[in-house]
Structure formats: structure tokens, C-alpha cells
Amino acid sequence: MAKLNTLIDSLNAVFGDKLVSLKTDLDEVTIEIGAANWLEAAKTLRDHAELRFEACVDVAGVDYSTYKDGIWEGQRFASVYHLLSYAHNWRVRVRVFALDDDFPVIASVVDVWSGVNWFEREAFDLYGLVYEGHPDLRRILTDYGFVGHPFRKDFPLSGYVEMRYDAEQGRVIYQPVTIEPREITPRIIREENYGGV
């Protein structure tokens, strides 16, 4: 607990009013940094002697549009970074909200932690988060012709297009989804002596 308090004190001392919020839950610290201050804050998190977060071990996109049963009041998209300090043996979670829900842009931190390259590409691909300054921001998990971003809460379960090989044309083609929506109600089978002798 002393180490956690030291981390909290250091974060408050270094960032002061640049911290949008600082929360502790289950012995984990989560801070929120404004998008305008993110790139500078990332460098400070890495380089400041009291913090020294040398590694970013994960980056995740988040769509808050249906968070808390749709009662969420705030920006829709965020990028969440999990940082690790080898020197101090502590972790912090950093959340940065994109300012525009229609075109979510967040500064890339590839120049700060080179390992985030593919993580940012994944969040771009699945959530549509644009990382400004990323050296190679393109899809990484979905096909190049894929339409939309499948982890967004408003993305249809069946998608927008489907691809298939057309033998007559001798190539892969894209066409509108032809899946008929249907409701499947499972049948419950009860046996008198199920599980017994």
C-alpha cells in the first residue's frame, strides 16, 4: 500500500491540474489525461525520474456509447494504455478520450514506446480510432476491403458486406450481406432420470 501511495503522490506532483482524474480501485491506479496533453504526458511518464514508465504493455480502444446501460455522459471513444515501470516495479492505466465522436483522433505514442505500433493499428482497425502521427496506420486484423469497425457498439452483428470466391469471375468478390436474421429458440430436453441411476 505504501508503494501505491508513493505512485499516487508522484503522479499528482508531476502532473498537477493536467490530470483530468486519478482513481484507485483494487490496488490499481487509473489516470485520465486530456487528449491535448497526451503526447507531452506520455514523454513525462516515460522520462521523469519519479515515474519512469519504460514500457507500454497494452493499448486498447474502448467505445463507451452503451456504458452503464447507455447512461454514459461524456466522449464516446477512448484509448487506454497500460504502462509498466521496471525501475519502480509499478503499473498505471492511462485513459485518453478522443474529443470528436464522429472522427476520433488521439496522438500516436509510437515515438515514445515503439511497441505500441501494432496496438494502435489494432485499435484503429477495430474501433476507428485515428492515431495522429502513426507511421503506418492501416488495418491489421480485418481485410483491406472491410467496411466499418467491428468493435464499435453500433456495428451490425452480420456486418455490411460479405466476401466469397466467384468461380465464374475467377476472383474474390464483395457483395451486400445476404444473411436472413432469425431468432433461434433452444429446446430444453428434460429426462426423468438425467444424471441419476
Written overview of the protein:
- The termini are far apart.
- Helices cover 20% and strands 29% of the residues.
- The mean pLDDT is 87.
- It has a single domain, classed as NADH:ubiquinone oxidoreductase Nqo5 subunit (Beta Polymerase, domain 2, 2-Layer Sandwich), CATH 3.30.460.
- It is an alpha/beta fold and 197 residues long.
- The protein has 4 helices and 9 strands, in the order αββαβαβββαβββ.
- The strands form 3 sheets. The chain has a 5-stranded mixed β-sheet. It has a two-stranded parallel ribbon with strand order 6-7. Strands 8-9 form a two-stranded antiparallel sheet.
- The longest helix is centred in the first third of the chain and has 14 residues, at 2-15.
- Tell me the domain tally: 1
Give Rg in angstroms.
22 Å
- According to DSSP, the number of beta strands is 9
| CATH architectural arrangement | 2-Layer Sandwich
Structural class: alpha/beta
Strand content: 25-35%
Tell me, rounded to a whole number, the average pLDDT.
Answer: 87
What name does the CATH topology carry? Beta Polymerase, domain 2
Shape: globular
Question: What percentage of residues falls in helices of 4 or more residues?
Answer: 10-25%
Query: What is the strand arrangement across the widest sheet?
Result: 1-2-5-4-3
Number of helices: 4
Give a short account of the largest sheet.
Answer: 5 strands, mixed
Name the CATH superfamily assignment.
NADH:ubiquinone oxidoreductase Nqo5 subunit
- Helix-strand string: HEEHEHEEEHEEE
The CATH class label is: Alpha Beta
Low-pLDDT runs = none
Q: State the end-to-end CA separation.
A: 54 Å
